[in-house]
Amino acid sequence: MLQDIIGAKRELFADGVQTVLRGHENRSRRVVLLKGNLVQNSRSEAAGINARVNNRGTFGFASIAEYSPEAAEKVIRAATENALSLGRHSGRNVPLPASLGTGAVPLNAEIRDTDQKTIIEMCQAVDQYVEKKYPDLTSRTVVYTEDSQDRIIYTSDAYNGHLVTPRCYVYVMMSAETKDGVPVEMFKAFGGFGSFYDHFADPAALYPGIDELYKKLMDKKEGVYAEAGYKTVVLGGTMGGMLAHEAVGHTVEADLVRGGSVAGPNLNKRVASDLVTMVDFAHTYLGKPAPLPVYLDDEGTKAEDDVLIRDGILVGYMNDRETAEEYGMKPAGNARGWTFSDEPIIRMRNTCILPGKNTLEELIASVDDGYYLIDSGNGQADLTGEFMFGVTCGYEIKGGKLGKALLDTTVTGVAFDMLKTVDMVSDKVEWSSSGFCGKKQPMPVGMGGPYMRCKIMIGGR
Question: Rounded to whole angstroms, how far apart are CA atoms 184 and 131?
Fold first, then answer.
């Protein structure tokens, strides 16, 4: 129905004015069990239509929380009027460059809804497994979360399409105490792109991962504090993915380059060792679907991969159509908005440091005295590339072998300096896709990386 509504209103696109009309629906589902008690059970949906108009360099935007022919007509007229009004005061007279092509991008997925009772029963089965097998835990939590976006995009001069991005996850969280009464906790996320039955038709499929999580928690219960200082470490794949997203990815988003990020003066310069190549993948990684595939962005640009660092040299930025013209680059489909009321901004999709040639075992064996840092619970970085990540799971490395587990600690550094110390890279990549990027609006993103040997500043107790 929405395709018919939006398609019929293309006749209102003004001549010579670049227009995007987007129908956008967000759906979310959430269930939380704390020690077997249902403490949250929610479902929500939000839908509407928006239009974004560029009149000789000035953007106008309008949205309405309604799906109807009248709503589509209203937002087109309002966005066009906004662009014309703002243009009279902006003094700009530079239209967007011509798009890279026109055509249609077909529907890439479907959202299959699941009743809340089925979701709750699955969470209860998981909780009961944890309760029965691991009664020594001080606390346990099972969380089911699902979010999806359904976009229909029509443009005056670019691609049209229907883009659907469903994803769902189960988080299992466990808590225990050390012999000194210090609380320790860990969690693991299961799931990914797709709907409930793509991942959780059989709760027993989660049990091996839950057993592995418990083992790591028991290791951590007997853990030690890291020795503070500048250390040789093996970064786990999810840690490398967070680095790729937080400490490097944001600095090479062209709107943040405009704002003064460290990537601006470093274009075409060395920012990492020659073992490091980093790509923002659109929808395919090594011949298979990327964790959160994007085929079309909200400007009607067909999504392609963006090479950001090649063999240690910073070679590109992520762009929308406007910044691509400004920096003499090619837009690759990075402009997205979270809800119907959000104007699209430059966002990452599936940002990853590419694998190398070494095995994880070789990386660990090469470290005489250092740390193996596996998981991070949080992280932050600024536009200088300076970062600080929490480490929630890690181990000592002594004489090339794993030692005791680590209690929670942090690592800090400047990304472009740290990446220059990378001297071994594993042949496998780990992906994470359960989080949101919080740049002005939420946005689901995938991030990944290989295991890397490097030097980093690690905190102590």
Answer: 18
229, 458 contact by CB (below 8 A): yes
Q: What is the pLDDT of residue 15?
A: 66
Instruction: Say if residues 365 and 357 touch (Cβ distance below 8 Å).
Output: no
Which H helix or E strand runs over 220? helix 207-221
Confidence of residue 55 (pLDDT cuts 50, 70, 90): confident
- pLDDT for the residue 7: 62
- Highest mean pLDDT among 11-20, 90-99, 241-250 belongs to 241-250
C-alpha distances out from residue 150 to 2, 108, 197, 343, Å: 11, 10, 19, 16
Does residue 43 sit in helix, strand or coil? strand
> How many other C-beta atoms are found inside a 10 Å radius of the C-beta of residue 88?
8
Which residue's entry shows tokens 């085929």?
Answer: 295
Q: How many Cα atoms sit within 13 Å of 351 on the Cβ side?
A: 26
């890397």: which residue's tokens? 452
d(CA 358, CA 453): 10
Q: What's the whole-model pTM score?
A: 0.95
- Rounded to 10 degrees, the C-alpha dihedral 263/267/268/269 comes to -40
pLDDT band for position 13 (50/70/90)? low
Residue written as token pair 């070679």: 315
Which residue carries 């995007």 as its tokens? Answer: 20
d(CA 236, CA 372): 7
Q: Give, as one character, the DSSP assignment of residue 417.
A: H
Residues 6+ apart with CB under 8 A from 44: 27, 28
Tokens 């500043």 correspond to: 457
Structure tokens given for 380: 């932050």
DSSP H or E segment with residue 4: helix 2-8
Strand partners, 314: 309
pLDDT at 276 over 90: yes
Cβ 418 vs Cβ 455: under 8 Å: yes
**Residue 342 to residue 53: CA distance in whole angstroms:** 14
Q: Please tell me what DSSP assigns to residue 243.
A: I
Calpha distance 29→34 (Å, rounded): 17
Query: CB 52: neighbour CB atoms within 10 A?
Result: 26
List of residues 6+ apart from 201 with CB closer than 8 A? none
> CA 89, CA 91: separation in Å to the nearest integer?
6
Q: Select from 404, 391, 414, 400 the least CA-distant residue to 460.
A: 391
Structure token pair of residue 242: 């967070």
C-beta of residue 294 within 8 angstroms of C-beta of residue 283: yes
